[in-house]
Amino acid sequence: MGAISPADWFEYLKKQWLLYHLENRQFRFMFEPPPPNEWVALDCETTGLNVNTDEIISIAAVRIVGNRVMTSERLELLVRPERRVSVESVRIHQLREQDVAKGMAPEEAMTQLMHFIGSRPLVGYYLEFDIAMIDRALAPILGGDMGLPQHRNEVSAMYYDYKFRQLPAHQQDRRIDLRFATLMNDLELPLRNAHDALNDAVMAALAFVKLRQLLAAGK
Which of 28, 53, 59, 202 is the most buried if burial means most Cβ atoms within 10 Å? Predict the structure, then answer.
């Protein structure tokens, strides 16, 4: 067994600290060793971009096994917000007030999401925002300042590494375009309609699988 990197050691200690402070013990399964070679790609649509005041209105997640995106093993949830959905928000994700009114309560949605993810590492495009929104919704369920403990795989960071490797030394200060459409087109992957949680989760999963292969091959 090889030496543990400082980053892996820090992640292990953080997970142990979170497990120790977990108040709702029925969710201990999130801290178990993940199934080998499996991940979950996820995405959220929200009422806005403020992680402190806006709310989740839809969540989608899809499992990845090896190099396969398991679109038959997916989760799609509408979530009922406490406040009204703004006109600006509807223009982006096309989810109207009457649509989300049929959604489930946030606690029920978060519970379903946690059971779908299990202990699998997470995948996403600019995942930090989605995780921040989910963690805020999870706090009343898990107790304390608790959030998802799983390892995160950021697709935009993987793409940056892939493109940076291709730059000659004298061009390594050049800006790399990390827009989702640019990334998908460059990787020759199908571009679905954006701002739909399932479409975004599937695209992130496809990009993750291809980038893992490219980076492993040293390209």
Answer: 59
